[in-house]
Specification:
Layout (H helix, E strand, L loop, with lengths): L9 E6 L2 E6 L1 H30 L4 H18 L7 H8 L4 H29 L14 H13 L21 H12 L5 H16 L1 H15 L5 H10 L11 E4 L10 H20 L7 E2 L4 E2 L11 E4 L6 E4 L5 E6 L2 E6 L1 E2 L2 E2 L2 H13 L19 H11 L3 H11 L4 E4 L11 H13 L12 E5 L5 E5 L6 H19 L19 E2 L6 H19 L1 E8 L4 H6 L4 H17 L5 E6 L8 E5 L3 H12 L4 H18 L5 H14 L4 H7 L5 E5 L21 E3 L7 E8 L3 E9 L7 H18 L2 H4 L2
Parallel strand pairs: 8-12, 12-13, 17-19, 19-21
Antiparallel strand pairs: 1-2, 3-14, 3-20, 4-5, 6-7, 8-9, 9-15, 10-11, 13-14, 16-22, 17-18, 21-22
Helix pairs in contact: 2-4, 4-5, 6-7, 8-21, 10-11, 10-15, 12-16, 18-19, 18-20, 18-23, 19-20, 21-22
Pathway: Lipid metabolism; fatty acid beta-oxidation
EC number: 2.3.1.21
Keywords: Acyltransferase, Fatty acid metabolism, Lipid metabolism, Membrane, Mitochondrion, Transferase, Transmembrane, Transmembrane helix, Transport
Length: 761
Amino acid sequence: MAEAHQAVAFQFTVSPDGIDLQLSHEALRQIYLSGLHSWKKRFIRFKNGVMTGVYPGSPGGFMVVVVSYMSYNKYQQLDPSLGLIAKLGQHMPISQKIVGGVLVGTGLWVSIIMIMRSVLKSLLSWHGWMYTSHGSVAWSTRLWMVLVKVFSGRKPMLYSFQNSLPRLPVPSIKDTCKRYLESVRPLMEDEQYQRMEGLTKDFEKNLGPRLQWYLKLKSWWASNYVSDWWEEYIYLRGRGPIMVNSNYYAMDFLYVFPTSIQAARAGNAIHAIMLYRRKLDRAQIKPIYLLANKVPLCSAQWEPMFNTTRVPGVDTDILQHVNDSKHIAVYHKGRFFKVWMFYDGRLLLPREIEQQMARILADTTEPMPGEEKLAALTAGDRTPWANARETYFSRGKNKQSLDAIEKAAFCVTLDDTEQRFESDNPDQSLVSYAKSLLHGKCYDRWFDKSFNLIIYKNGTMGLNAEHSWADAPIVGHLWEHVLSMDPIKLGYTEAGHCKGEPHPNLPGPQKLSWDIPAECQEVIQSSLKVARTLADDVDSHIMPFSDFGKGLIKKCRTSPDAFIQIALQLAHYRDKKKFCLTYEASMTRLFREGRTETVRSCTSESCAFVRAMIKGETVRLLKQAAEKHQNMYRLAMIGEGIDRHLFCLYVVSKYLGEDSPFLKEVLSEPWRLSTSQTPLQQVELFDLVRHPEYVSAGGGFGPVADDGYGVSYIILGENLINFHISSKHSSPETDSHRFSGHIRQAMLDIKGLFQLEKKTQ
C-alpha cells in the first residue's frame, strides 16, 4: 500500500558534460499553490485582527467619520493641529487640509470606538436581566436590551466582543464564607458544623483579608483572576493519567446510521471538521449569545481547538499550539499515518478523504516494534511519559514522527471494533460504546491531542477530547456542526460512499517511521498497565430517558435543570441513604476568559424536599428547592460563586507560604456526586420535531471520586433526556446501573407530584 508520494521539485546529476538539471513542474506547482494558500491565510488573519481590534467600529465607519469631519472643517476653517501641519507643509508636498482631516478624523473615530466599548462593557456588567420572571420582562430590562443592541455594533465576528467583556469580579470574603457555610450545613452534624464555623470565622477575620488583597491586585492586572491558575493547577500540574480522569467523550447519533462504510464516514466527518476549522480561522463562526442574541459570551476557548497538543513535563505539562497545520494524524491497527488535507491549493473533498482512509485500511504492513501501543504513554502517569519523551523522542526519526502527531490539526482513529446502539441490547451496547470512547484499548487514542475523532468499523463515530484547553460546550459546538453536516448537507451515495469521485493523482498517506528501543517499550508497557487498571475499573451506564422531557417539565413551571438536579439528589439519597457534596458545572463566560464555576446543588432546601418525599408528597418544598438552585446558578454565572474564589485564595496562600486549616479542609472535600449538563447550542441545525431521530446521545466523563458518581445529561428536544453515569467497580458503595434506576424513578416521582394528568382532563 501506499507510502507518501515523494514529490521532488528538482533533480540534478553531474556528468562529464556538466550538470543536468531536471525540474518537476508538478512539484513546483504544488509548492506555488501551498505558498499561495499560506499567504491567503495570513492575510485573512491580519484582516480579521484589524476588524476585531476596532470593533464595534468598522473601516466603513472610519470613512464616514473622516469625510464628515473634513466636510465640516472645510466650512469652519479650523486648524486642529495648532499650526503643526502648516509647518510640515513647508518641507513636504502635502495638503494641510487632507492630512489634518485624516488625523483628527482618525482620533475622533478611535475615541468613538473607545466610548462605545466602555459603555458596552458597563452594560454587560449588569446582570439584573437574569432575575427577570419567566414570561415577563421589566421596563428596565427592555431599556437595557435596547442599549446593548445599539452599542454592540453590526455583524460581529467570533472574537469581536472580547475587548468589551467585563472582568470576572472577586467576591467579598464575607459573602464567600457565608455561602460556604450555608452549602455545608445540610451535610454536617451540629458538632462538626460548629467546628467548621469556627475555622471559617477565623479565616474571614485574620488570613482571608490579606489573601484577598493579593487576589484583588491580580484581578486588576490579569484578564481573568481564575482561568490561568485553574488551567495550570487543576489540569496541567496533575501527574496522574488524563485518560478517564480528565478527558471526556461525545457520541454519535443514537438512532441514525448514515453509512456502514468506515472510510466514507471518516471522509464526511473529517471534511466537516476541516470546514469548521476554516470558518474558525476566518472568524466566521457567530459569537454565542444568551437572552435572545443580546448578551455575548467569551470566545477565547475556541482559539486552541485545532493544532494543539498537551505536552508532558516532569512537574507540569504545557499546551503546545501551532498557528497552522495542513495534515492530520491517523491511527489504524497499530500504525500511525500522516495524511495531508490539502492538494492543488485546496481542501480535500469528502470522497478524496475517503480515498485516503481506504488506502490506510487496505495497508497490510505490520507495526514497527513498540509502535502499536505507543499511545499508551499518553494514557498513563504524566512523569514517566515526560521522561520517555525527552529520552527517546527528542531527536531523529522519532522526533519527526512525534511532531507529525503533535502538530497535526487533530487525530483520527480508524477503530477495528464495532460500536452502536442496539435496540435489542440497549444497556450493554451503550456501555460498550461509552467505554470505548472514554478509554478504548488504552493505546489507540492519542489522549494528549485536543481531540480525537474515532471512526468504528461499522461507520459509527465519536470524539474523545482533552480537557485543559477548553470546556465541553466548545467541543460540543464543533460536534453539532459535524453531525448536522454529515448525513444531510454532505450526504452519501446509494452505495454508502461519499459523493464525488476519487482523485486520480492524489499522493497517498505517509506511514510514520519509528525506532523505539526495548527500554522505551518497557515504559510503554508500564503505562499501559496503569491505564488498563484504571479503564477496567470504570462502571459506565447510559440511560436514554424518554418518559418525558423539558416540554412537560415546563408545564410544571420549573426550570428543567433544577428539576433534574433535584431528581439527582432524591436518587442519590435513595441509592446511598445519605446526602453528599454535589458539583454542578456552570459557565462564567459572561466575563473575559471565563471558564467554569461550581453550583453546589445539595442545599438545605433540596434536602428538605428529599426528606419530605421519603415521608410523603409535597410540591411547596420542591418549588423552594428549585428556586434556590436557580439562584445559586445565577450567582455562579455572574462571578459570585464559592469554589473558584476559595481555590484562588488557596493558591495565594501557598505562594505566601501561609498554612490555612480552613482552606486546606475545604479543598480536600470530595465531590461524591459530580454533574454536568451538555447544552444543545445550535438548535437551528436540528429539526427535532420533523426528524426526532437526528439526536446525539450526548457525552460523558469518568467518575471524580473513588466512591462517587459522575453524571452528564443532555436535554434533547421536548421529550428526551440522555443520562451518562459513571462510577468505579472497586467501590462497594456505587453501582451505575442501580443509580440510573433511581434517577428514572426520581424523575417519575417528582413529575407525579404535579398531577398533570388530572389537570388535562
